[in-house]
Amino acid sequence: MSQQFDFGMVGLGVMGRNFILNVTDHGFSAIGLDTDLAKANALEEEGAGKPVKGTTAKEEFIAALKKPRKIMLLVPAGGPVDAVIDSFLPLLDKGDLIIDGGNSFFADTNRRETYLSAKGIHFMGIGVSGGSHGARFGPSIMPGGDAEAYEMIKPILEAVSAKVNGDPCVAYLGAGSSGNYVKMVHNGIEYGLMQLISEAYDVLKRGVGLSNDALHELFSGWNAGRLQSFLVEITAHIFSVNDTLTDQKLVDMILDQAKQKGTGKWTSQNAMDLGIPVPTIDMAVTLRELSALKPERVAAEKIYGPAQAINEDAVTLAAAVEQALYFSFIATYAQGMAQLTDASNEYKYGLNLETVARIWRGGCIIRAAMLENFRQAYQNNPALPNLLLDADLASSLQVAQAGLRKVVAAAVSSGIPVPAMSASLAYFDAYRSARLPLNLVQAQRDFFGSHTYERTDRTGIFHTDWAE
């Protein structure tokens, strides 16, 4: 059996098992390793008739792989990744490849690449998006790191990835931790889009009383238009699902406290470290944190009262909400793409934003029809610093901003929180302002801290004794 399999997977949970079965669907043999015998057996049962094996013995796993070995880890981020790597090292040969396919923090990926490179072992951090269904039938894959190593795994990744018009949704992205970084920002954008959709839902349900059935029809219609996307599609479906324990729709029976695994927070934190504004993503993270304060929110509503209905025709407001979502979606992608642009320069990743937009068009959670527009924008101008500066997108944003302003104004007047929509609008208004009031902030800083300032009429650094 030794050196029989083309590909190895460590971690046979739903994602790992589905990914390895996807590999075997495309003509490659694979072996999976897990400490849980039931998971190893489940792989063999589900893969009956395919060139696949499950095992709980790492020695057997390593010995059964063709050289140079290609091993992918889908285990929890952090310590477990390091533990698996260290346990494998005595059994590996120079030239073997380890791939971290989990949501690892990009700085950890840099550390692991340096550590393994010194031992002659190739290492790559690869972002994988699409959930369990995507892992089984075609995810979006974001590989970064050792360019030589990518050629070793490229045939397998291209085979298993999602396809858009026959084009695989995978491409080598760049050096170092670029793959994990791009996946991190992907997840930050995901946070923003999900929060925006939840605000649209809140405005329409709490604001003008649309039923779940009406919301299902509305979102289904939007998904057939310019808002076509995975997240809008599944949202439409969610509104139609009945609860098996009551006579209600399931969405109404779910507690309004959202959890998070940290990748959205990492996006915000690193954006702040780099000085990159991503306010929609920031607010999406903040609202998940605010949602956890359920007892306090209940107490506060008793003091201040609930939000009021929006005094607007439902059909008219729904049309404005569609514009608001379209505008805010673009603003969110623009923030994430701008972060990738700046981070690529800072960390010397060498990212191509047209490539990023291209591989996000299929398989991943943030896949959407508008990504093709973004791909074209970067194809037309590879040096585009922000999607808001693309002429074609600008023309559609000029029209859609009216709907966003209407929705934000109506929601604010009624006390319905729309922080991500408000942040998207504020980001746009600040970005398009040739002059901002930060001259006053500079004056204040110089007044209390002698931090100096620059002038509009001459070059140099200046300080004023403001008290005199």
Could you outline the blueprint of secondary structure elements for this entry?
Layout: E1 7-10, H1 14-25, E2 30-33, H2 37-46, E3 52-55, H3 58-63, E4 70-73, H4 79-88, E5 97-100, H5 106-117, E6 122-129, H6 131-137, E7 140-145, H7 147-160, E8 163-164, E9 167-168, H8 178-208, H9 212-223, H10 230-238, H11 263-274, H12 279-291, H13 294-304, H14 314-347, H15 353-359, H16 370-380, H17 391-414, H18 419-431, H19 438-449
Parallel strand pairs: 1-2, 1-4, 2-3, 4-5, 5-6
Antiparallel strand pairs: 6-7, 8-9
Helix pairs in contact: 1-6, 1-7, 8-11, 8-12, 8-14, 9-10, 11-12, 12-18, 14-17, 14-18, 15-16
List keywords for this structure.
468 residues, alpha/beta, Rossmann fold, N-(1-d-carboxylethyl)-l-norvaline Dehydrogenase, domain 2, Single alpha-helices involved in coiled-coils or other helix-helix interfaces, 7-stranded mixed sheet, two-stranded antiparallel sheet, 9 strands, 56% helix, 8% strand
Return the average pLDDT rounded to an integer. Answer: 94
Sheet with the most strands: spatial strand order: 3-2-1-4-5-6-7
How far apart are the first and last residues' alpha carbons, in Å? 86 Å
Report the CATH C-level class of the largest domain. Mainly Alpha
In terms of DSSP E residues, the strand content is: 5-15%
Structural class: alpha/beta
Shape: globular
* Tally of strands: 9
Count of discrete structural domains: 3
- What is the CATH superfamily classification of the largest domain? N-(1-d-carboxylethyl)-l-norvaline Dehydrogenase, domain 2
Helix share of residues?
A: 55-70%
CATH architecture term of the largest domain: Orthogonal Bundle
CATH topology-level name of the largest domain? N-(1-d-carboxylethyl)-l-norvaline Dehydrogenase, domain 2
